[in-house]
Design brief:
The chain is of the alpha+beta class and 361 residues long. The chain is built from 11 helices and 10 strands. The longest helix has 35 residues, at 213-247.
């Protein structure tokens, strides 16, 4: 049996890549990193014309009805371009509403996401690991507490979040009882926000409790997409290393002719290619064998985090001192991979969770 992308899937990824080349070049990324956040709006508008917000929404609610594999291909392209575009949080919110929401909630929220009337952020950090003083408590339809590293909250109208018991909630970010504070991280291509709630009205999704299947499925999709994002970033860093080695001369020869540099590039490629299969397979199982989704997502993200760290370090070493300058811009991919490694669980946390899922711990 041959497992390969369909013509439509290849066309989807190619369309996203082509658009990103025009609207999310390295110069655009530099401008976003420098604080010109209006650039992100232009990028999001261009990608919206491709229908990315509709990707995971069922056809019955006006969407394209595609699956996790297509979403992973989109996220891989975004990682390749280290684009600041909003996609991941919306995908998580869509999945949460599909998995946990009642029919009435799906009819209300999914068409609104589809048309762009509602733009979603996501804050699920405390479901994986909690810093002191963080966490949300749900009581009588209201949330109180603090959640960290909310993704895409600066451009969103609503938020998907979870309380300390694992219940999923939708929150209007314009509520006066929410205090938003930007968080500075190593990744300048994305904006993270600290949100403090003071008895803020929240709409619970369905009947959720601790460890609910809907929460686990939402986390699984997020981990798959983060793995895909890292995969795309690694592919770009490998390509840049090979191109640099082919033109940079030392001792009268291009450095790519030295065996040590050849080995560095070959080892990056050898680690990266099977990682691609792992990401695609985990995304495929998410839709076809849901009972395996949580385990495969943990394995995919934990492995890609390690591969990503290796590729980021090795590509920078191939570039020598140039790897640390803004001229090449390599550090944007380096830091994106580092941020992806931690969001929704680092390798150690995910491997421990995989062990529990398999009954080994």
């Amino acid at each position: 049996m041959e497992f390969a992308l369909s013509e439509d899937q290849l066309m989807l990824q190619s369309s996203v890549q082509g658009t990103l080349e025009n609207v999310s070049s390295l110069d655009h990324v530099r401008r976003v990193a420098a604080g010109e956040h209006e650039v992100t709006g232009a990028i999001n508008a261009a990608l919206a014309e491709l229908g990315l917000a509709q990707l995971l929404i069922p056809e019955t609610h006006g969407g394209l009805g595609l699956g996790a594999l297509e979403a992973a291909l989109v996220q891989e392209a975004l990682g390749f371009a280290v684009s600041p575009a909003a996609f991941l949080a919306s995908a998580l919110a869509t999945e949460a509403i599909k998995s946990a929401g009642t029919e009435a909630q799906q009819s209300q929220w999914l068409p609104a996401i589809n048309t762009g009337t509602v733009r979603m952020a996501a804050a699920l950090t405390e479901t994986v690991s909690t810093r002191e003083g963080a966490g949300l408590v749900a009581e009588n339809g209201h949330l109180t507490g603090k959640t960290l590293f909310a993704l895409e909250a600066d451009t969103a109208t609503h938020l998907l979040t979870a309380d300390t018991a694992g219940g999923l909630h939708l929150v209007d970010l314009t509520a006066p009882t929410i205090t938003q504070s930007p968080l500075e991280t190593i990744d300048q291509t994305r904006r993270y926000t600290e949100l403090v709630f003071d008895k803020t009205a929240a709409e619970p999704l369905g009947q959720n409790g601790a460890g609910s299947p809907a929460l686990q499925r939402t986390l699984a999709l997020g981990r798959i997409l983060l793995a895909a994002d890292t995969l795309g970033a690694c592919q770009n860093m490998l390509g840049k290393a090979i191109a640099y080695a082919a033109e940079r001369k030392q001792f009268g020869r291009v450095i790519g002719s030295f065996q040590a540099v050849k080995h560095m590039c070959a080892e990056m490629a050898a680690k990266l290619e099977p990682a691609r299969s792992l990401v695609w397979h985990s995304a495929y199982l998410f839709d076809t064998e849901p009972e395996k989704a949580a385990l495969m997502a943990c394995l995919a993200k934990s492995h890609l985090s390690e591969v990503g760290t290796f590729v980021a370090r090795t590509s920078t070493e191939v570039h020598g001192g140039m790897g640390f300058t803004d001229l090449v811009g390599l550090h944007y991919w380096f830091k994106r991979i580092g941020a992806n490694r931690q969001w929704l669980g680092g390798p150690e946390i995910l491997r421990a969770e995989a062990a529990r899922l398999q009954g080994w711990a």
